[in-house]
């Protein structure tokens, strides 16, 4: 929700319809309410209501007999920071919160200070502080200050021209993800098996990050947000929008690839001097990305054991040709020096080993019933 022209439809089209920022200029104004249905996490359905922001239409939506806002789980309220009409826009926001408190008392609130790129760099801190102060003043009746401090209301600065939009929407999606701890615990297991640096699960249509895990820091998830700053960035060496930068890059790449193969983007493998990045389909609604050390086979004690036992993801059983080409000994252990010196064989081995782990993960995630308690 938000005032007409604030950019609501543009961001929805970018996130869920794969529009580029430039393509949103051809979108028209929303009239009344536009509903988008997205299949989400196997057996869930995400229903997105894009509400018109014209004064008369907004009043209609907020009328007591209108049930459009019933059973709402998340509100995303958008302020166009380049064109805020005071105090009218703040009063309308308060009216929306009051209505949701009646129809959807468990609703979580996200506020986007949108078109943030139009604010001069040296004025951004002051501009944000002034808008929050105005919201606190206008929202005394709904105790906005308390809602903001306890995290019930989360505020993000966004623009369609960088990854801040994906950062904010990923936080929204995280609020809707059931059984996130189950997913994260399974990522920990994969990390131990593959000695993975990072793992991220994305929602496939929007490519928003759902859950992530890293062993690079002494914490479960280094995408945690700094609640003191409440702006989507963390204290740690890796910023909280890291996964959203990846999301933005992959969406751009996928769009470019669609010009050549009709949008059939399935998986991607990248090798650098220090890391290997695998991106693959996990289920019909999820994708997984793994970041592994380039010397994965050397560094992982579990992988070394699997290799020596001839049990690396059923690799030797299913790929006897590589086993023989590497002069496997009587105990079926791989000739490791040869593996490290022969790039094509090594890559084939890695692909098979990791592929078997992802296949197991795919079977696991496909069977999670996200609709049950």
TrEMBL record:
Pfam family, one: Gtr1_RagA
Sections of the chain in a coiled coil: none
Top-rank taxon: Eukaryota
GO process annotations (BP): cellular response to amino acid stimulus; cellular response to nitrogen starvation; cellular response to oxidative stress; endocytic recycling; negative regulation of autophagy; phosphate ion transport; positive regulation of TORC1 signaling; protein localization to vacuolar membrane
Transmembrane segment boundaries: none
Keywords from the named record: GTP-binding, Nucleotide-binding
Primary role: GTPase involved in activation of the TORC1 signaling pathway, which promotes growth and represses autophagy in nutrient-rich conditions.
Quaternary state and interactors: Component of the GSE complex.
Name of this chain's protein: GTP-binding protein
Organism whose genome encodes this protein: Ascoidea rubescens DSM 1968
């Amino acid at each position: 929700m938000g005032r007409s022209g604030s950019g609501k439809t543009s961001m929805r089209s970018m996130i869920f319809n794969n529009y580029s920022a430039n393509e949103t200029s051809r979108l028209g104004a929303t009239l009344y309410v536009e509903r988008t249905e997205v299949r989400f996490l196997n057996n869930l359905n995400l229903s997105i209501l894009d509400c018109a922001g014209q004064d008369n239409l907004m009043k209609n939506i907020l009328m007591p007999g209108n049930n459009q806002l019933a059973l709402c789980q998340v509100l995303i309220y958008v302020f166009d920071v380049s064109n805020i009409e005071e105090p009218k826009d703040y009063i309308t926001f308060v009216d929306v919160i009051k209505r949701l408190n009646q129809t959807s008392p468990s609703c979580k609130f996200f506020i986007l200070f949108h078109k943030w790129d139009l604010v001069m760099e040296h004025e951004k801190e002051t501009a944000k502080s002034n808008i929050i102060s105005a919201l606190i003043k206008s929202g005394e009746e709904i105790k906005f200050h308390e809602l903001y401090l306890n995290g019930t209301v989360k505020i993000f600065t966004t623009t369609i021209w960088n990854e801040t939009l994906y950062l904010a929407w990923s936080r929204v999606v995280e609020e809707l993800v059931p059984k996130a701890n189950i997913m994260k615990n399974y990522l920990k297991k994969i990390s131990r098996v593959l000695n993975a640096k990072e793992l991220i699960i994305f929602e496939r249509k929007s490519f928003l990050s759902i859950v992530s895990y890293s062993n690079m820091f002494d914490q479960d998830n280094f995408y945690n947000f700094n609640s003191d700053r409440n702006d989507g960035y963390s204290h740690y060496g890796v910023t909280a929008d890291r996964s959203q930068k990846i999301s933005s890059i992959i969406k751009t790449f996928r769009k470019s690839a669609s010009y050549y193969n009709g949008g059939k983007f399935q998986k991607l493998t990248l090798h650098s001097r220090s890391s290997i990045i695998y991106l693959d389909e996990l289920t019909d609604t999820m994708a997984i990305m793994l970041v592994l050390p380039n010397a994965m086979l050397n560094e992982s004690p579990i992988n070394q054991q699997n290799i020596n036992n001839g049990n690396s993801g059923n690799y030797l059983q299913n790929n006897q040709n590589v086993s023989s080409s590497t002069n496997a000994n009587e105990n079926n252990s791989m000739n490791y020096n040869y593996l490290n010196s022969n790039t094509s064989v090594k890559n084939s081995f890695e692909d098979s080993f990791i592929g078997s782990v992802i296949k197991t993960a795919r079977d696991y995630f496909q069977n999670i019933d996200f609709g049950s308690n």
